[in-house]
């Protein structure tokens, strides 16, 4: 991290403090671009559209111990998109349910569930 900027990974669970203009604020810093937010840390991802999300994007989810995440919220951008059946099935096989919604709603829902100590993660596509 340099000058309060996020460099690609921040360990630990963090609330999303703000979103907008293609960026997110969390952990007292900011990041321009999309994120994968999990109990073990916040990661930058390359996807700029929900259609670019694939199994490789979700590899950190699949690498977590079983039971670490029960629900993965998909912030699809400004609007809702269905989670591809193959990804949904692979997540279900790991015991992870998924719920797609707009990025703003996903960030808000993530914060609420994190505050309730739920086992939740979120993939958040940045929006302008």
TrEMBL record:
Pfam families: DUF498. SUPFAM superfamilies: MTH938-like. This is Uncharacterized conserved protein, contains Mth938-like domain. Coiled coil: none annotated. InterPro entries: MTH938-like_sf (IPR036748), NDUFAF3/AAMDC (IPR007523). It comes from the Bacteria. The lineage of its organism: Bacteria, Pseudomonadati, Pseudomonadota, Alphaproteobacteria, Hyphomicrobiales. It comes from Rhodoblastus acidophilus (Rhodopseudomonas acidophila).
